[in-house]
Amino acid sequence: MAEPFEHKELPVEKDLSETLVSHGVQGLFVITKDGIPVVERFYKKENNFKAEHSYLVGGFFSALAKFANELTEGSLLSDVGFSTIRIHIEFTPEILFLLVFDESKLQGMTTDIVRMLLKGTLSSVKSVFQAYFGETELADLKNPIEFNNLRNVLIKMGPTLDKMVLESHVETLSIFQDSQASPFRFGL
């Protein structure tokens, strides 16, 4: 029987990982609103991240999102940037989705276009979680052993999530590339 807080992600397929990184996608985190990591997927080879760091990342972004929400009287934090790395954040009432992205891969796109691209990239993953959990199932899992069992199920979904991230990203990127050839550009 696994320890209650044991956490082992399945590795990312090498070819899929390289493709995601070449498109700028470096990682995906799914955390509860309380900062507990549910899924971490890393696509960049040079990754010094350890499993125990995921709790620090989860707690940090949960606290940052709560702070921004209180500071701006209800507005949600959409992204955080570190040099060329941007972390895009999507919310449901119980889950935060974080997409780690290398912004230098999107030279020439405005900030608004980059945000819409990252939102589109996360859309299928967010949809799957909303369909799978509804709005409250994660909040109801207060027992650490039950929560760990759920995480172990989600870990098995990792390779499927990776493919979904790539497909969503490529599809959304193609929409923006097509729109740039058009004089209408989504009204921007």
How would you sum up this structure, described in words?
The chain is of the alpha+beta class and 188 residues long. It has a single domain (14-181), classed as Dynein light chain 2a, cytoplasmic (Beta-Lactamase, 2-Layer Sandwich), CATH 3.30.450. The protein has helices at residues 14-22, 53-71, 111-133, 137-140, 144-156, 158-181; strands at residues 25-32, 37-42, 79-82, 85-91, 95-102. Strand 4 (85-91) and strand 5 (95-102) form a beta hairpin.
SSE map:
Layout: H1 14-22, E1 25-32, E2 37-42, H2 53-71, E3 79-82, E4 85-91, E5 95-102, H3 111-133, H4 137-140, H5 144-156, H6 158-181
Antiparallel strand pairs: 1-2, 1-5, 3-4, 4-5
Brief sketch in words of this structure:
With 188 residues, the chain is an alpha+beta fold. Helix content is 49%, strand content 18%.
